[in-house]
Amino acid sequence: MGFWTLIEGLLLFANALAILNEDRFLAPRGWTLAEIQGGRRNTLKGQIIGLIHACHFLRLPLILFNIIIIVVKLFSG
């Protein structure tokens, strides 16, 4: 496994987190940002919820990074 494969895997993981719908998928399971507003931000659940919301917030850079990866893969094979 090379560095390029690792980058592609992380990009796929970030894409998967970015498409999770908060109302239909996360809220019924108690994984909303409102759940960690207290002092529970340092728990594992709080850190994962923060990561999901960071991926939601950074959708435009994620789209641009996807485009760059696609173009590089087209030219490099």
TrEMBL record:
Segments traversing the membrane: 48-72
Record's GO cellular component terms: COPII-coated ER to Golgi transport vesicle; endoplasmic reticulum membrane; Golgi membrane
Entry's Gene Ontology BP terms: endoplasmic reticulum to Golgi vesicle-mediated transport; protein transport
UniProt keyword annotation of Iron present: no
Alphabetically ordered keywords of this record: Membrane, Protein transport, Signal, Transmembrane, Transmembrane helix, Transport
Primary location: membrane
UniProt keyword Transmembrane helix, yes or no: yes
Residues annotated as signal peptide: 1-18
Location relative to the cell: Membrane
Family indicated by similarity: Belongs to the YOS1 family.
Protein name: Protein transport protein yos1-like isoform X2
